[in-house]
């Protein structure tokens, strides 16, 4: 038993009857949607691909919503409190270029080859070795991560609402299991769109009221500067500037430099996540035609650019406005393990991750509070539904259908998909309980997940853009890239001094290490793939048609006006993205 | 966009906004009549009235525009 479980929780907010009604109605509606759609998930295409008939808006909002887990909301609000506006890099340079790249460069290949999954693309492009490696690692990591998110969510619900940890885990996961098992991807997507609206409706009021209280952006900056100066924090100005403090590792609270942000985060990690993580790609694969498939990530990118206003801004507002209600002194949030320890609770400490619920409790009375809590629950459920529906698809098509029962009928795949949904939820619950008893597992599983993302991007992007990449090279590049990432992680764990080689500075903090480790293992993956390709036999041009740039006739989006063209909206998003970087430089 | 069913996803979204908006707006009006003892910061702005009202209006518009009856005529 960990200390977290032994302590008596101090409840942050108290729900009224109207709050509970709003939360209960939300659960009723998501289950009703699952029941309503259960008769429209009878074939494999329906259950796993939502019939490939989603419009750009539906696919685009689901694409973003699957990524907006509650940990994403609360965790990154906490990171904004901890690191300042630098956390917004994960939403802007760490997302927008990659989402636009997916839309305009990679989506045509995913769409034309009609794959069911990213490992499915690797099978078509490289063969079964790469498919097996990526599908097994993805399936395993997806359900483990889902369990970790579930546990973290339950802990926060206990701290914020005083809910029993087992109640939170079982009620939320059973609800997700029911609506995804009944309606498949279509039900998951429908609910993700609903959850998207609820997240915004529940969270948008905090920055609006917060900016009114702080006196606008200038008032917010001045208050943060004043508070951090009072607390003798080094470089307080770095908390409200995106780029100007990234020249040196020591000049900003994240301990990172611009090379790590631009190349590690922007060019590798975000490209890896947004272009190859099947959790999000599956939503776009459900689009009804190529134009919708290209527009969906662009719509997602447009809203992703706005997410910092409901996530990062509340964190900054917490830094500026939160004061102890009894003493009137500045409130200082602390890491979760300290806040949730017996001593931490006795002192009334709050963790970084509680900044969003704290701001919610600050401004939202009965009714609005219920909607805000519903937004957090909706975030968790959309993330979990994304995980289990992606797990069910990869397991059914890339493990069961490819390795165990190659002659499986469509009916048996749908049955397997429904069982896998339940299995995925069960493994997630098991992982949540495992983490409850040994929290160090959480760090290792999160690290494990990061090992696969960067090399997978290297393998997929070379496969799409370079016809000479061979099947053997794809497999060995992916394997060595992954192993090199694990090797660097262990090296720094065993010898912390090694960080000066891995991250190019002994002052580099955890985030910087992750960025540079991703960059190196991606480069190793590329290098090995190129070298092995030179000495092994490539596939013929005919075999690569529909899979590789230069050998694939990409159909035109048709005769549509300028405002209906994906490239037009990608340009608009790019311009807004650049303007935001300049405003918050 | 019906995507196979007779009810559009946007209708479900409208329904959710309508019900939540009505509950929050109603609570806001109630608080105007009987102000609570413990008040949130910026209570005087009565966010639950205008935010609940906004959600209610958006919900009504969505429910009307994407209602099965209207869509079947279109």
Concise description?
Chain A is mostly helical. Chain A is built from 26 helices and no strands.
Describe this structure in words.
The complex is a heterodimer of chains A (585) and B (74). Chain A has one domain (3-583): Sodium/glucose cotransporter, CATH 1.20.1730.10. Helices cover 71% and strands 0% of the residues of chain A. Chain A has 26 helices and no strands. The longest helix of chain A is centred in the first third of the chain and has 39 residues, at 165-203. Chain A is globular. Chain B has 74 residues and is mostly helical.
Key descriptive features of the protein:
heterodimer; A: 585 residues; mainly alpha; Sodium/glucose cotransporter; 26 helices; 71% helix; globular; disordered N terminus; B: 74 residues; 3 helices; 68% helix; 0% strand
Average pLDDT score of chain B? 88
In total, the number of strands of chain A is 0
> Oligomeric form of this entry?
heterodimer
**Number of helical segments of chain B?**
3
Query: How do the helices and strands follow one another from N- to C-terminus of chain B?
Result: HHH
Domain unit count of chain B: 1
Terminal CA distance of chain A reads 46 Å
Task: State the order of secondary-structure elements of chain A, H for helix, E for strand.
Answer: HHHHHHHHHHHHHHHHHHHHHHHHHH
Shape of chain A: globular
**Class computed from helices, strands and strand pairing of chain B:** mainly alpha
Percent range for β-strand residues of chain A: under 5%
Largest sheet of chain A: none
Helix fraction of chain A? over 70%
């Amino acid at each position: 038993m960990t200390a977290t479980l032994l302590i008596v929780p101090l409840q942050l907010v108290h729900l009224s009857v109207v709050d509970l009604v709003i939360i209960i109605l939300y659960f009723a509606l998501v289950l009703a949607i699952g029941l309503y759609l259960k008769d429209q998930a009878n074939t494999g295409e329906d259950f796993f691909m939502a019939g490939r008939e989603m419009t750009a808006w539906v696919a685009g909002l689901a694409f973003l919503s699957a990524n907006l887990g509650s940990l994403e909301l609360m965790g990154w609000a906490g990171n904004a409190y901890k690191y300042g506006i630098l956390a917004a890099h994960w939403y802007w340079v760490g997302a927008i270029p990659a989402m636009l790249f997916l839309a305009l460069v990679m989506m045509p290949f995913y769409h034309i080859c009609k794959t069911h999954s990213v490992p499915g693309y690797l099978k078509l492009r490289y063969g079964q070795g790469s498919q097996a490696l990526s599908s097994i690692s993805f399936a395993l990591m997806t359900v483990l991560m889902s369990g970790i998110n579930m546990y973290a969510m339950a802990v926060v619900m206990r701290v914020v609402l005083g809910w029993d940890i087992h109640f939170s885990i079982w009620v939320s996961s059973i609800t997700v299991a029911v609506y995804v098992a009944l309606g498949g991807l279509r039900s998951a997507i429908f609910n993700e769109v609903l959850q998207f609206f609820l997240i915004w409706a529940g969270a948008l009021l905090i920055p609006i009221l917060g900016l009114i209280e702080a006196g606008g952006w200038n008032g917010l900056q001045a208050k943060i500067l004043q508070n951090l100066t009072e607390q003798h924090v080094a470089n307080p100005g770095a908390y409200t500037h995106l780029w100007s403090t990234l020249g040196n590792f020591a000049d900003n609270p994240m301990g990172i430099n611009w090379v790590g942000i631009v190349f590690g985060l922007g060019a590798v990690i975000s490209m890896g996540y947004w272009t190859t993580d099947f959790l999000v790609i599956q939503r776009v694969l459900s689009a009804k035609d190529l134009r919708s498939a290209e527009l969906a990530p662009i719509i997602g990118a447009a809203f992703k650019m706005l997410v910092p206003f409901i996530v990062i801004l509340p964190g900054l507002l917490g830094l500026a406005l939160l004061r102890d209600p009894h003493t009137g002194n500045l409130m200082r949030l602390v890491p979760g393990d300290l806040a949730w320890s017996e001593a931490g609770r006795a002192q009334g400490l709050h963790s970084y991750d509680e900044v969003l619920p704290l701001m919610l409790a600050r401004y939202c009375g009965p009714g609005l509070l219920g909607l805000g809590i519903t937004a957090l629950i909706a975030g968790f459920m959309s993330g979990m539904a994304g995980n289990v529906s992606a797990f069910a698809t990869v397991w059914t098509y890339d493990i069961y259908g490819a390795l165990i029962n190659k002659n499986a009928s469509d009916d048996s795949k749908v049955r397997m998909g429904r069982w896998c949904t339940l299995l995925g939820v069960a493994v997630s619950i098991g992982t949540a309980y495992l983490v409850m008893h040994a929290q160090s597992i959480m760090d290792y599983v999160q690290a494990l997940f990061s090992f696969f993302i960067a090399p997978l991007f290297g393998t997929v992007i070379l496969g799409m853009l370079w016809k000479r990449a061979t099947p053997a090279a794809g497999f060995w590049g992916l394997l060595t890239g992954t192993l090199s990432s694990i090797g660097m992680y262990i090296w720094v764990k065993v010898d912390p001094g090694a960080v000066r080689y891995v991250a190019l500075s002994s002052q580099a903090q955890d985030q910087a290490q992750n960025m540079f480790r991703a960059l190196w293992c991606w480069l190793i993956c590329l290098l090995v793939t190129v070298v092995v390709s030179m000495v092994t036999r490539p596939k013929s041009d005919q075999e690569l048609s529909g899979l590789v740039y230069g050998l694939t006739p990409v159909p035109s989006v048709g005769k549509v006006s300028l405002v209906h063209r994906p490239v037009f909206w990608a340009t608009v998003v790019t311009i807004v993205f650049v303007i935001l970087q300049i405003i918050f430089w | 966009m019906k995507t196979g069913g007779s009810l559009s996803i946007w209708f479900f979204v409208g329904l959710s906004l309508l019900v939540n908006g009505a509950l929050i707006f109603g609570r806001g009006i109630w608080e105007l009549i009987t102000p609570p003892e413990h008040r949130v910061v910026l209570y005087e702005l009565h966010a639950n009235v205008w935010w609940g009202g906004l959600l209610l209006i958006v919900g009504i518009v969505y429910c009307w525009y994407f209602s099965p009856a209207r869509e079947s005529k279109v």
